[in-house]
Design brief:
alpha+beta, SMI1/KNR4-like, eight-stranded antiparallel sheet, globular
């Protein structure tokens, strides 16, 4: 399935589940169940996307990530209703991602050439941020987790998101 269609289907189905059931019962790896919700931002405005490309002309954003932004410019996935301040995955809006990037570039860890092209796109609770390597083209491994080990997911953002939703926010890449 094409990445943009896959992203749209994932978001539509999560929204439908939230609308019909008001929450999702999420199975945890230890066998317990948590009551969670998913929240989605409005889609990115095309003018905003164009501004980013004008400000950062050398940045490449993968098509599957752009497809997500066109459906929802950020999201909170698996926000617990039973544990305050617990959101398993926060996908930053594109604007937030660049703010995080600028803040990280002030850190000593992000002063070298290898890290200057990284864009933090989401935060996983208890794990850290996942980054896009913005110098890598579609078809290559552009999703990195967690810094600084430089592990890469061998699939697109759409595939990562699909697997993450099927795993109900659990760390499927460690199974």
């Amino acid at each position: 399935m094409e990445d943009s269609k896959k992203i749209l289907k994932i978001i539509e189905n999560l929204k439908l589940q939230m609308q019909e059931q008001k929450c999702i019962y999420r199975w945890l790896e230890d066998g317990t169940i948590d009551k969670v919700v998913c929240k989605f931002n409005a889609p990115i405005e095309l003018e905003e996307l164009q501004k980013i490309y004008q400000k950062y002309p050398n940045i490449k954003l993968p098509e599957s990530y752009i497809a997500f932004l066109k459906c929802s410019n950020g999201a909170q996935l698996y926000e617990s209703l039973t544990c305050k301040a617990s959101t398993i995955c926060t996908i930053y809006s594109l604007q937030e991602a660049f703010v995080h990037r600028e803040n990280l570039h002030q850190s000593i860890l992000f002063q070298n050439e290898d890290t200057k092209d990284l864009l933090p796109i989401l935060l996983l609770e208890d794990i850290g941020e996942i980054f896009l390597d913005t110098k890598v083209s579609d078809g290559e491994e552009y999703l990195l987790y967690p810094f600084p080990e430089d592990k890469r997911f061998p699939y697109s953002f759409a595939d990562w998101l699909g697997k993450f939703v099927v795993a109900q926010g659990n760390e499927y890449w460690n199974w």
